[in-house]
Design goal:
The protein is an alpha+beta fold. It contains three helices and seven strands; from the N terminus they run E-H-E-E-E-H-E-H-E-E. A seven-stranded mixed sheet has the order 1-2-3-4-5-7-6, with helices on both faces. The longest helix has 18 residues. The chain is globular and about 40 Å long.
Length: about 150
């Protein structure tokens, strides 16, 4: 999987369409969750795109401190369902962590993690902060990596 990092204005129309399609496929259809994915935050984000055979198979977006949370943050972490067995979740997250450090010069990173992925994010150095909460009717926990 190749990693591409772009600002919103650098994304091509086809790349943006593929990103939105993947996010919709997983977060709305697979997880059966009706929510507003197009949230006008993409314009502030750096987009971390994982491509395989010229197709988007993994994605996340990162924000500098203050653009979404108090600290730098990572969100919308997603891997195409039929590509999950290859460890692309870990690859895209490590690319996002590295990008936060390189582009924003930050090491403290906040995420809002779906609770069932707690072990996955703990394995990447994140620690739970605060209590469980519902976001779009899905249990989430705040997590921070220092």
């Amino acid at each position: 999987m190749n990693i591409i990092i772009k600002t919103f204005t650098e994304l091509t129309t086809n790349e943006l369409y593929a990103i939105l399609q993947l996010r919709s496929e997983v977060f709305i259809v697979e997880q059966n969750c009706a929510y507003q994915d197009v949230d006008f935050k993409d314009q502030k984000a750096l987009h971390i795109i994982g491509c395989k055979n010229k197709k988007v198979v993994a994605y996340t977006r990162i924000f500098k401190a203050g653009d979404y949370f108090k600290n730098a943050s990572i969100g919308r972490v997603v891997v195409k369902q039929n590509e999950r067995q290859y460890g692309y979740g870990k690859v895209i997250m490590q690319a996002a962590i590295n990008a936060v450090e390189e582009h924003f010069k930050q090491t403290k990173i906040h995420i809002s993690a779906q609770k069932y992925l707690l072990k996955f994010y703990t394995g990447l150095g994140f620690e739970q902060v605060g209590e469980e909460y519902l976001e779009d009717n899905i249990p989430h926990v705040g997590m921070v990596k220092n």
